């Protein structure tokens, strides 16, 4: 405008104190969060709600970009401020899915691996320089060699490798046969699993001697010394009269039963099988006779209780041979000498001959009990009598609730005697033998080579035998404690040739005190007495109020940790019995090359 200066024009304008439109309360942005941004951010989207959480963009509030990877992001994580808050927290909910998912492992896309440099520690392994391990394998000290993963045990892992417990489903199914044929007329009265048996407990006294029979030769202490280098003691086959009479056929037990010395009668081999039932894997059976108020624990002729098992408790126990009438294919030849039955027969003969060979037979130097052997008849027998002492001992199984005392008489056996080095008193021994068939064969249970390791690593050899033969060693220890033996001698017998079961050698003998050996095996003696008392009470309960004689059969299931009690007719097994006396190796011929 002409005639108006610039200052006058500015002064005529209505200038507000603040720039912009007038502030209205309706447009106030109170409560809207402020979101700062970095100057380095590029202009892209006005609002990107999906950028947060992208891999490679944000990790713990920092952005790993190519140009500004070390700068703080001023607006990092602020998009959550604008998120809609739902009424309920959905993070506490999860989808239930019972299907098994597998995680792909590898070094390709999506594979997960743990790499470690020198001197660093991984969570699953400890190793050397540049080693690696795939997550989830769990070995220690592994190495990559030739494209394969090896663990520190020398085994081969990874693809195509063998790991214990892996792909065990393709192993041959082990369907063992029962020790006795369950007949249709048998009535099952009770079924007890091993978990219930484990919980039983009964404390008893050490027992008392009722009567003693037989005689004992003295033990040859030369077997305690290690064999001289390059010389081995050959196991000989000796012809001696030995007896293994069942309970009801024992004339001494019959006499004690008539005198009412006890109400329960058994032999140590039968009683030990029942007391150590929870350690057994193979099937066995015990015949129980109830005659009035007396109970006899019996066995059948040719019972499996008389056999000495081999590696029964091993993780990979010996397998039965393939036969035409079985559907399972075990890969074991029909004529194999390493089947469970053939190994048991071999071990039984070894134990018989070992007890006879390790004593000094001298008629002028032996320990004699007051009464002679009750099973030997000099007019009928032609073979010499074996060294054996029979001690009939009584144990009290009574409880406070019992109206009458419950006593058990058991016939125990001793194999030899020896003189105490300090006092010169007689001590009594139980002689048993462990046998090695082939430490490289199937069923060996990871046993060491006895010829090279028995002297230097005796503890490892014994520990392996405790694991593979837990039931057998527990039975032997129980028999020694029942007989109140001072010592138990364990012999280590091996084949001369692993491919032949004809000839054997004695590699060494180790002595143990039965109570100390039982503690090493974690053998609970009170649990065994609890099992015996439970079975006896069950038989009494089933026949309560019935004065008639009863017969029962207790059978261990061949494939499950279960025992079953059957009521059977009184005539059961009578066709198979002759006089109830079975001699073990009475007329066995000498083995090839053996000399008496």
SSE arrangement:
Elements: H1 6-12, E1 58-59, E2 62-63, E3 113-115, E4 132-134, E5 143-145, E6 148-150, E7 156-157, E8 187-193, H2 194-198, E9 208-219, E10 233-234, E11 240-241, E12 243-245, H3 251-258, E13 264-267, H4 268-275, E14 285-291, E15 294-298, H5 340-357, E16 359-360, E17 366-368, E18 384-385, E19 388-396, E20 407-414, E21 416-419, E22 426-436, H6 450-453, H7 458-468, H8 470-482, E23 487-495, E24 504-512, H9 514-520, H10 525-542, E25 550-556, E26 562-568, E27 581-583
Parallel strand pairs: 11-18, 13-15, 13-20, 22-23
Antiparallel strand pairs: 1-2, 3-4, 5-6, 6-7, 8-26, 9-16, 9-17, 9-19, 10-24, 12-27, 14-15, 14-25, 19-20, 21-22, 23-24, 25-26
Helix pairs in contact: 4-8, 4-10, 8-9
Protein name: Eukaryotic translation initiation factor 3 subunit D
GO molecular function: mRNA cap binding; translation initiation factor activity
Organism: Exophiala viscosa
Give the structure's gist in a few sentences.
Residues 304-318 are annotated as: RNA gate. The protein has 596 residues and is α+β, with helices and mostly antiparallel strands.
């Amino acid at each position: 405008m002409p005639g108006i200066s610039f200052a006058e024009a500015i002064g005529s304008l209505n200038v507000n104190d603040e720039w912009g439109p007038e502030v209205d309360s309706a447009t106030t942005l109170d409560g809207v969060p402020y979101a700062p941004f970095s100057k380095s951010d590029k202009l892209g989207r006005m609002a990107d709600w999906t950028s947060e959480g992208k891999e490679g963009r944000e990790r713990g509030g920092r952005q790993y970009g190519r140009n500004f990877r070390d700068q703080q992001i001023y607006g990092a994580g602020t998009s959550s401020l604008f998120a809609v808050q739902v009424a309920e927290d959905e993070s506490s909910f999860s989808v239930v899915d019972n299907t098994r998912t597998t995680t792909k492992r590898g070094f390709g896309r999506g594979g997960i691996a743990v790499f470690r440099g020198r001197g660093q520690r991984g969570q699953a392994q400890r190793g050397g320089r540049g080693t690696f391990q795939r997550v989830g394998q769990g070995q220690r000290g592994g190495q990559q060699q030739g494209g394969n993963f090896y663990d520190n045990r020398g085994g081969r892992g990874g693809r195509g490798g063998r790991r214990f417990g892996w792909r065990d489903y393709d192993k041959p199914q082990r369907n063992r046969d029962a020790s006795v044929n369950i007949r249709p007329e048998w009535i099952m009265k009770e079924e007890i699993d091993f978990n219930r048996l484990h919980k039983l407990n009964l404390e008893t006294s050490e027992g008392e001697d009722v009567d003693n029979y037989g005689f004992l030769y003295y033990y040859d202490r030369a077997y305690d010394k290690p064999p001289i280098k390059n010389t081995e003691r050959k196991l000989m086959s000796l012809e001696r009269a030995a007896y293994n009479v069942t309970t009801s056929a024992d004339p001494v037990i019959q006499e004690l039963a008539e005198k009412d010395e006890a109400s329960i009668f058994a032999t140590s081999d039968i009683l030990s099988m029942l007391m150590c039932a929870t350690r057994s894997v193979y099937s066995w059976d015990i015949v129980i006779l109830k005659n009035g108020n007396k109970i006899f624990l019996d066995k059948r002729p040719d019972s499996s209780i008389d056999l000495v098992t081999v590696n029964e408790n091993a993780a990979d126990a010996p397998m039965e041979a393939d036969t035409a009438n079985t559907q399972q294919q075990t890969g074991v030849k029909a004529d194999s000498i390493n089947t469970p039955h053939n190994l048991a027969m071999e071990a039984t003969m070894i134990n018989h001959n070992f007890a006879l060979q390790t004593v000094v037979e001298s008629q002028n130097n032996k320990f004699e009990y007051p009464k002679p052997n009750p099973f030997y008849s000099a007019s009928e027998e032609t073979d010499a009598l074996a060294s054996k002492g029979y001690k009939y001992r009584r144990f009290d199984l009574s409880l406070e609730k019992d109206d009458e005392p419950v006593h058990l008489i058991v016939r125990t056996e001793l194999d030899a005697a020896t003189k105490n080095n300090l006092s010169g008193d007689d001590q009594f021994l139980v002689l048993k033998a462990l046998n090695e068939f082939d430490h490289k064969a199937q069923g060996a249970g990871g046993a060491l080579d006895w010829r090279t390791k028995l002297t230097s690593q005796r503890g490892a050899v014994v520990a392996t035998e405790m694991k593979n033969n837990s039931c057998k060693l527990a039975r032997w220890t129980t028999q020694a404690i029942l007989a109140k033996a001072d010592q138990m001698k364990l012999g280590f017998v091996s084949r001369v040739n692993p491919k032949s079961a004809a000839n054997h050698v004695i590699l060494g003998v180790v002595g143990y005190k039965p109570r100390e050996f039982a503690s090493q095996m974690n053998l609970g003696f009170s649990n065994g007495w609890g099992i015996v008392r439970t079975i006896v009470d069950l038989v009494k309960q089933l026949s309560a109020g019935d004065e008639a004689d009863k017969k029962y059969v207790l059978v261990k299931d061949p494939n499950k940790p279960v025992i079953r009690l059957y009521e059977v007719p009184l005539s059961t097994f009578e066709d198979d019995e002759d006089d109830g006396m079975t001699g073990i190796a009475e007329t066995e011929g000498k083995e090839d090359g053996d000399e008496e």
